[in-house]
Write the structure tokens for this entry.
Amino acid sequence: MGARRLMLLRHAKSSWRGDEGDHERPLNARGEAAARRIATYLADQPPPDLVLCSTATRARATLASLGAVITCKTRFERPLYLAPKERLLERLRVIEPEWQRPLLIAHNPGLQGLAAMLASEADRALGERIVGKFPTAALGTFDLRPGDWEVFGPSQVLAATLVTPKTLT
């Protein structure tokens, strides 16, 4: 088994125009551009081997904007929609052992809370920065100790990074 890595991606900026409900909101032009910047960044990283994605239109569109960079197994899961950090952590703990580099695409505040909790273990300053802001299309990457997902938690984090579309321009 290779090194484990978890990636947490907040969906890109969505539109508030139209009469669709929250779950159906599409990306706006700024969100599409931001997702493409993240895709360019991801092209130079070890690729995910599994994507867990909220069923919300904006999360699915963010994934679609990643284009050819993401070619692995994808699971669209309704419980990820607006899930609190505890539910996201529970979901990660039942990932099958063969998956070593999952990408989770979801929503704030749950995703921000999970990212801050995980980052704080490896880099307190980064954890505090994430508490302050985890913007749309932010990507947190967490290098993890070898081990089983069923015991996954902050103590498994060896290193953490955060990139945003603004830091990539």
User: Anything to note?
Assistant: The chain has one domain: 4-168. The beta strands are 4-10, 50-54, 73-77, 102-106, 139-144, 157-163.
